[in-house]
Specification:
With 175 residues, this protein is mostly helical. It folds into 2 domains: 122 residues, Serine Threonine Protein Phosphatase 5, Tetratricopeptide repeat, CATH 1.25.40.430; 52 residues, no CATH class. It has 8 helices and no strands. α6 runs antiparallel to α7 and α7 runs antiparallel to α8. The radius of gyration is 17 Å and the shape is globular.
């Protein structure tokens, strides 16, 4: 997800100057992403004082949460899109990865559970929904259980990505 002005809480319209010392000091606490991270966003997040950062993140998270609630209540809206935006925003704005502060794992559990129960299986074959499950599987101790659950419940079974990631998880586990 590209960060929109409403969700990019650490930028203003001034030109961005990256303080590499901030990045150097925090590099061991930044979880790498396959898609990479924007250095300007990282610098802005890490150079903001903790109390101010939490305040800004809380306000932005609340706006995205409201979007999720609205999407769940409106039958014409797409709650999967709202959850996907919230998850992407959380991953981008909490560079330390899943933690109590980010609430990422709990968010993924909530999103996958709520979307499974809502809409009578409407999102089962949606690639975005599968990606939420795969991201969740990447953070649990035994991802094979998540992949088996997806297969049994026919979540993403028409996408090769499910089987490729399941095979990688089995390889990592030495099976």
């Amino acid at each position: 997800m590209s960060t929109t002005p409403e969700t990019d809480v650490f930028t203003d319209n001034a030109p961005s100057i990256v303080d590499c010392d901030v990045l150097e000091a925090a590099k061991e606490n930044i979880q790498p992403l396959a898609s990479g991270r924007r250095v300007t966003a990282l610098s802005a997040i890490l150079s903001t004082p903790h109390a101010q950062r939490e305040s800004r993140l809380g306000a932005a998270r609340q706006r995205l949460r409201i979007n999720v609630e609205i999407a769940l209540e409106d039958e014409d809206d797409d709650p999967l899109e709202a959850y996907s935006r919230l998850v992407s925003w959380t991953v981008e704005n909490y560079p330390q990865g899943p933690s109590a502060e980010s609430g990422l794992i709990e968010l993924l559990e909530e999103a996958t559970r709520v979307l499974r129960d809502e809409g009578e299986g409407r999102w089962r074959e949606d690639l975005r929904y599968l990606k939420l499950w795969m991201l969740y599987a990447g953070y649990v101790e035994k991802p094979a259980i998540i992949y088996k659950f997806c297969m049994v419940n026919e979540i993403g079974t028409t996408h090769s990505l499910l089987y490729e990631d399941f095979a990688l998880a089995l390889e990592k586990a030495g099976r």
